[in-house]
Amino acid sequence: MASLSDTADSKRRDSDSAASQDSQTAAEFINSQLQLEADAREALPYKFDTCTKQLGPLRQDLFACITCNPPPANPSDPYTPAGVCYSCSVACHGEHTLVELFYKRNFVCDCGSTRLPSTAPCTLRINSETGQKGGVVNEPCEEKNEYNQNFQNRFCGCECDYDADSQKGVMYQCLGLGAAKDGGCGEDWYHTTCVVGLDPSWHDEAMKKKAASAESTAVNGQEPTTTPAEADGNAIDVEDGMPTPPGFPHSDDFAGFICYKCVEANPWIKAYAGTDGFLPPVFKRSAAPSPQAKSEEKDDEKEAVKTTIAPVAPSQKRKAEDDGTDGDVEAKRARGDNDEDSKPKSTTTTEPNSNGDGAANPSTKDQPPSCKISHLPSPPTEPFSLFFKDDFRASFCRCPACFPHLAIHPQLLDEEESYEQSLSHSSAASDAAGSTLGSRAGSLLDRGERALSTMDRVKAIEGVMAFNHLKEKLTPFFREFAESGRVISAEDIKAHFAKMRGDEGPAGKEEGEKAGGGEEDKRREQGGY
User: Fold this and answer.
1) Mind giving me the DSSP string for 433-477?
2) Can you state the angle between helices 425-433 and 26-43, rounded to 10 degrees?
3) pTM, to two decimals
4) Most C-beta atoms within 10 A of its C-beta, which of 97, 169, 314, 520?
5) Contact at 8 Å (CB) between 257 and 388?
6) What is the DSSP string of 104-128?
7) What digits encode the pLDDT tens for the residues 129-165?
8) What pLDDT digit, counting tens, does each position of 337-374 carry?
9) How many percent of the chain have pLDDT more than 90?
10) Rounded to whole angstroms, how far apart are CA atoms 204 and 206?
11) Any residues with CB less than 8 A from the CB of 83 and at least 6 apart, and which?
């Protein structure tokens, strides 16, 4: 039968084992703090001390505050959307529920305006009434800001609420050719499945089929085989671990896309589908053309071979890229990049007269520049999305009839510049060191060491002496646990410091009065004189 001493020893060992699991060394604590700081720098790498409102309209990273402006349960109910810049999302709404909208063009920060409640003032701008920084509320909002469903945390044509933890598949942002009120999408984000007319749950079904196929292959002991695309277009293409829905282009084949909403709002751009710089139209399944329409479209394409810009079938595009025979493509790009060369030059033709002497015909006159798309076949009438390549801007026709369409959408003429906050000092120091965790650059520990090196020499020496004095007091305490093999718990440390302060026992109280209460005694005596 176990004695009481054995039971006590067993309980003490269990207690020490539990304490050892919860304990950590100084090195482990420092590394954990470095990891937390590295995570913070990765999540918030930029400075957040300046609001962008004073810079005017910008293409910038925006956030919608759901805490300040909760969206209504019914999308048709009245709602006042608002967007805040990166700095205000951290400094003014850091404890709120935010939805990152990513980049949107020509937007002025709404923080501190009438679009947000006065309970959430802008803390970064100067208050015109007080002249002090912060407390900015009810300022006039920017009337030219455009809003879409993203500001209510709704995205895509399926109008889903975005949840990063449960979101499946990949989403792409439309280039945006018009605001939502004008029939466009306002730079909305789309699921790959919704672009081709499939339900967003298609990814789950595709992954189940893939898992079942892999399991069947493992049971049969056969090597996995690659099957060609089925005639009905239901083949599953896996890209970056996620299946690509049938009909959606591979990510390497395009640089961006214009959604079916924006294409319908700007029907003139349909003519460029399948031309140089653009992929063939990507239809939604509900809007895909009939086989007869496809046959007629192929006949039109054959007739369009003689035009300036001829539609190219997808197989021919892939063949040209794979074989490297891109001489014609490069020539088109060169002409597109040089506006002077891409425009047909005015020429005066000389025709022989009836006498055959080669004299100039007086009726000949300069011809105006011809349109590059006037001889292309009629585009499909069904709604479709238009995917483009990196050099798509060089393919647009800039004749007098077509250029006005481009002028109202500057993003079609030149690549846009996006505003980004400058990196914070800690992130910049970490990047310069070449590591976020492996280097202590910018950490609190490193800052403390630098602060100690810049202190007044007398104060620094006094601090080191105080540290050595504390070390002398703690060494016997640590030695006791080292010799017994026990783990130091938080209670042990608290009890030891209480003993050092003289907080325990009558004797400790007397010592505490002599040591810790000396200053108070002196003050009372001085007051009695």
Assistant:
1) HT-SSS--TT-HHHHHHHHHHTS-HHHHHHHHHHHHHHHHHHHHH
2) 110
3) 0.62
4) 169
5) yes
6) EEEE---TTBTTS-TTS-BSSSBPT
7) 999 999 999 999 999 999 999 999 999 999 988 887 7
8) 444 444 444 444 444 444 444 444 544 455 656 888 88
9) 40
10) 5
11) 62, 63, 64, 101, 104, 107, 109, 110, 145, 147, 151
Cα 429 to Cα 443: distance, rounded to the nearest angstrom = 10
Pairwise CA distance, residues 155 & 15, whole Å: 53
Which of 206, 180, 182, 178 minimizes the C-alpha distance to 192? 206
Tokens of 229: 């695309």
> H or E stretch including 408?
none
pLDDT tens per residue, range 250-287: 999 999 999 999 999 999 999 999 999 999 999 988 65
Q: Which residues pair with 464 in a beta bridge?
A: none
pLDDT of residue 69: 94
Per-residue buried b or exposed e for 388-399, using 16+ beta carbons within 10 Å of the residue's own CB = bbeebbbbbbbe
- Check: CB of residue 116 under 8 Å from CB of residue 65: yes
d(CA 210, CA 226): 12
Name residues whose C-beta falls within 8 Å of residue 311's C-beta, 6 or more positions apart in sequence: 273, 274, 275, 280, 301, 304, 376, 377
Closest to 190 (Cα-Cα) out of 164, 157, 165: 157
Are 281 and 273 spatial neighbours (Cβ–Cβ below 8 Å)? Answer: yes
Pairing mode, if any, of strands 237-239 and 154-155? unpaired
Under 8 Å between Cβ of 55 and 418: no
| pLDDT greater than 90 at residue 117 | yes
